[in-house]
Specification:
disordered N terminus; OB fold (Dihydrolipoamide Acetyltransferase, E2P); 158 residues; 15% helix; alpha+beta
Length: 158
């Protein structure tokens, strides 16, 4: 089973919908995953190769979190993040299932990396405009991706 700490999953982006039936959780897996929310996730096999032109279609930019709100309607503990990407993108909202890994204070002012050219996604009545990126942490939680040194807002990953 695949997990998405941020509310989206690569299969939903590539395939445009739900994960294939073979990758969906059974009721037993859902119960087990809830009990082991911070168990180290298995490392996934590499995705199939894509062309460089396909990679260039994904617009990944640096932004700064300027507002953090509780997302009470989310099924899993989450925050609504308002992220400033500078001109010309401006402010965008993202739903992020990071509430068990980061406090509001840790998030506010933090630089993050997000995909900005996916269609908005309605998550429990909230329109998530960008996909904030993260990876599994050593402790089984989530580590948000961020530049290793100060970066320009809106700077595109290459």
């Amino acid at each position: 089973m695949r997990y998405s700490m941020l509310g989206w999953h690569a299969s939903q982006i590539v395939e445009g919908g739900k994960a294939p039936m073979s990758e969906r959780a059974t009721p037993e897996e859902k119960e087990t995953s809830a009990d082991n929310a911070h168990a180290p996730a298995p490392v996934e096999a590499p995705a199939p190769s894509i062309s460089y032109e396909d990679f260039l279609k994904v617009d990944i930019r640096v932004g700064r979190i300027v507002a953090v709100e509780d997302f009470l309607r989310a099924r899993k503990p989450a925050f609504k993040l308002q992220i400033d990407f500078g001109a010309p993108l401006g402010l965008k909202w993202s739903s992020a299932q990071v509430k068990t890994d980061y406090t509001r204070e840790e998030l506010l002012g933090r630089l993050v990396v997000a995909v900005v050219n996916l269609p908005p996604r309605n998550i429990a009545g909230f329109l998530s405009e960008v996909l904030t990126l993260g990876v599994p942490a050593e402790d089984g939680g989530l580590a948000l991706l961020a530049p290793s040194r100060p970066a320009r807002l809106g700077g595109r990953m290459y």
